[in-house]
Amino acid sequence: MGLGVLADGKWVSERQQEDEKGQFVRPSTTFRNWITVDGSSGFPAEANRYHLYVSLACPWAHRTLIMRQLKGLTDAISVSVVDPVMGEHGWEFSEGPGCIPDSVNHAHYLWQLYVKVDRHYSGRVTVPILWDKQTQTIVNNESREIIRMLDTEFGDIAQSDRDLYPVPLQDTIEQTIDAIYQPINNGVYRAGFATKQAAYEEAVTELFDALDHWEQVLGQQRYLCGNQLTEADICLFTTLLRFDPVYYVHFKCNLRRIVDYPNLWGYLRDIYQLPGVKATCNLEHIKRHYYISHPKVNPSRLVPKGPILDFETSHGRERFSSGI
Ligand SMILES: N[C@@H](CCC(=O)N[C@@H](CS)C(=O)NCC(=O)O)C(=O)O
Fold first, then answer.
1. E-strand spans in the chain?
2. What is d(CA 245, CA 207) in angstroms, rounded to the nearest whole number?
3. What's the rounded Cα separation, in Å, for the pair 223 and 317?
4. pTM, 2 dp
5. pLDDT at 324
6. Nearest CA residue ID for atom 10, ligand 1
7. What is the DSSP string of 68-135?
8. Which residues contact 54 (CB under 8 A, 6 or more apart)?
9. Cys-Cys with 285: which of 21, 67, 84, 323 at CB 3.0–4.6 Å?
């Protein structure tokens, strides 16, 4: 059993996800509408209108939860959390620890939401999903775009005036998110889901070259784009958090751990310790999801006990700037 897919509105519990070279291919997401301050897009920013469907295990969905916290949008945007284990029916809702059932659509499986929006939907069923309760549709299911909307389009509804996409840094932020995506955010999956040695080695080499590069950068400045926290940092953080507990072992990304990189490790703790971030980090969900949901990678489905990690120790990164 592997990852499933919708075909003409019907759930199929197995799909091919690598090409003939054994390389993992991630198809692009399909719902790409925008919420805007002025409502010109048809989806005006409003409190209590939008809902996020997330998994606490998923690095892409985790980005949106962090942004919701940092922007002070927890009262305005509600959330459902799927069960960490993706089984025969894909993501599903449950009453397990840390899970929040679907109070909006009362779905049992996540694929039911995609079919509700499009009876003939074909494609992957992924989190995160940004849902519009008013028109009962999926606004967007691409994390990079969802965090941008939460960051820039909610005006006074956002209780924090923190700006993670400041005008002078916008080009740098876009370039940085692009630069980390393929080798790092997607790179761990390219390594872990590769089915041929060459594909795996290429992914791992690119991954560690990129980590080495950002380790250098973070020896000079507090965050990826300078001394100010930006969207790019949220995008990197969710991958780094999962690295030592999961990717190092499960996805065979084992040249080095994040704790072996002094700057990346301090940076990871710095962001973890920002008010609101720790509450979004659930290592139980993270570990259970990966080790149990990918029987092709881990047929025994045993979840390792370790590693012992302390994200709470002082990180010393104030030496670069007082922060945000
Ligand atoms: N490009 C998407 C990727 C989302 C994604 O791949 N989410 C994973 C969870 S980590 C998922 O739901 N996978 C289910 C599947 O592939 O069937 C984003 O950034 O939002």
1. 5-7, 10-12, 50-54, 78-81, 129-132, 137-140
2. 17
3. 9
4. 0.97
5. 57
6. 58
7. HHHTT-TTTSEEEE--S--BTTBSB---STT-B--TTT--SBTHHHHHHH-TT--B---S-EEEETTT
8. 61, 62, 64, 65, 79, 80, 81, 82, 127, 128
9. 84
What is the CATH topology of the domain spanning 168-302? Glutathione S-transferase Yfyf (Class Pi); Chain A, domain 2 (1.20.1050)
Averaged pLDDT in 10-residue chunks for the chain of 324 residues: 87 90 91 96 98 98 98 98 96 98 98 98 97 98 98 98 98 98 98 98 98 98 97 99 98 98 98 98 98 96 98 97 68
Residue of 99, 165, 181, 189 with catalytic role: 189
CA 263 to chain centre: 22
Domain boundaries, the chain: 5-152, 168-302
Q: Which CATH class is domain 5-152?
A: alpha beta
235/181 Cα distance (integer angstroms): 8
Contact 133, 104 (CB under 8 A): yes
Residue nearest to ligand 1 atom 9, measured at CA: 58
29 C-beta closer than 6 A to ligand 1: yes
Q: How far apart are CA 137 and CA 318, in angstroms?
A: 43
Work out the angle at residue 173's Cα, subtended by the Cα atoms of residues 171 and 174, and round it to the nearest 5 degrees. 65
User: From the CB of residue 125, how many other CB atoms can be counted at a distance below 10 Å?
Assistant: 23
Residue type, 3: L
Residue with tokens 């069960």: 83
Supply the Cα-derived Rg of the chain in whole angstroms.
19
Phi, psi (deg, nearest 5) at residue 70: -65, -30
Cα–Cα–Cα angle for 32, 99, 246, nearest 5°? 80
Cα 127 to ligand 1 centre (Å): 5
Q: What angle do CA 194, 177, 29 make, to 5 degrees?
A: 60
Q: Walk across the sheet containing 50-54 and list its strands.
A: 78-81, 50-54, 129-132, 137-140
Which residue type sits at 253?
Answer: C
The DSSP 8-state label assigned to residue 322 in this structure reads S
